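Troubleshooting log. The previous structure file for this entry was overwritten by mistake, so regenerating from the original sequence record. Sequence copied from the archived sheet and checked twice against the printout by T.R.
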Amino acid sequence: MKFAKLIYKASVDGSISVEQQISEAEIESRLGRSLDTSKQFEKSLRYDITRTVCNILSNATIKYSGLNNTLTDSLQKNLINIFFCLHDYGYCYLIIDETSRIIDVNNNKGTIKLIDKAYEITKITQKEAAHKSLEMYGVVTDTMYSVLDERGMLGVFSPAKGTEVKPSQALKLYNAFKSIFGVKKGQRKFAITEVPMTYSGVNIPVADLKLIENKKEAVSSIARIYGIAEDMIQGGATFDNKENAIIQTYSDYKGLIYSWINQIEQQLISFRKAENYEVTFSGIPQLQQSNN
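Regenerated output below.
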């Protein structure tokens, strides 16, 4: 069995942890032994999150005492720019002209400085906080595909009694087995060995991997970082859960916009009161129904 482990050290079996199993699958993927899709899946979820954030902020309407003015109009148009500058750097600057119109958003200098409060406390940007969860989502999703679809035949070769297999022979046997069976489904040939060997098949403990649970947890973690109720983007959410998730998420983003308004008004010399601003999402049916 000692030599069997040497022969089969790259395989997934029940003697290593979930973390190690995921790590092994990722390594094999990057070496080209299965589809290298982890980055694609990570990018896919990043796109989904970004689109959701943009949809939320694009639907916001900002008024002051029921009316529009140059500040509310320009703030409304720059919500996405503000969000992603804060997302990347933890802070951003607004350049405001003499008519109180926001004419630029950057991370260098300006009239007003906005701070992501979480960044102010932790010194960790939203982008940095999301990176690991996004990466794990990609790895777990890639593992699901590589383990379930691309692994091919798995097993352990045990030397016959009284037979010694030297490390060089073990490596040779491992390479021969790999070249014959490969990692694709449907290849069913026989391996011929130079010494008497007994082959035992190995079942992948897919249930022990808890891939679906790990994937859902990764999505939930990313959703929390972006202030999105997970049922908005999590597959399999019930109708009622999704409705409630939409209401909760838009309410949270309304609070986020109010926090930016407060920071702006604290730094501007004006007679406007932050409590007189109105932030609404008139294009979202779920919010209208909840207000009735």
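DSSP finds twelve helices and seven strands in the chain. Archived copy saved in two places this time.
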